[in-house]
């Protein structure tokens, strides 16, 4: 009778290990994306701060591929603010995804602990 219990526990541990490896990779990816978005947000913020100090008559160009397009100061400032807002929203989404992944791994660990305790109690 001990053999089926051992096989069941072995299977549960294998599933947990696979889930943990997968989740750790997803958490690392989320961390990298958050870091990249934070950098992009900071860059847009600094650029916006510099642009606001320039006079309105300053000619500004937006890079598009291998060319530059003349844009008004207001358009470029709005694009930079939109970039910041988008980055902030994505960072929040990634943080929520990360906490969900960590919580799901913890739940799986707790389930296996409960299984071990119930086996020991028998």
From TrEMBL:
Gene Ontology MF terms: protein folding chaperone; unfolded protein binding
UniProt function note: Binds specifically to cytosolic chaperonin (c-CPN) and transfers target proteins to it. Binds to nascent polypeptide chain and promotes folding in an environment in which there are many competing pathways for nonnative proteins.
Annotated Pfam families: Prefoldin_2
Record text on subunit structure and interactions: Heterohexamer of two PFD-alpha type and four PFD-beta type subunits.
InterPro entries: PFD_beta-like, Prefoldin
Any coiled-coil regions, as ranges: 70-111
One Gene Ontology cellular component: prefoldin complex
PANTHER family documented for this protein: PREFOLDIN SUBUNIT 1, PREFOLDIN SUBUNIT 1-RELATED
Family label: Belongs to the prefoldin subunit beta family.
Identification of the protein by name: Prefoldin subunit 1
Keyword Coiled coil attributed: yes
Organism: Onychostoma macrolepis
Entry keywords, A to Z: Chaperone, Coiled coil
UniProt KW Coiled coil keyword: yes
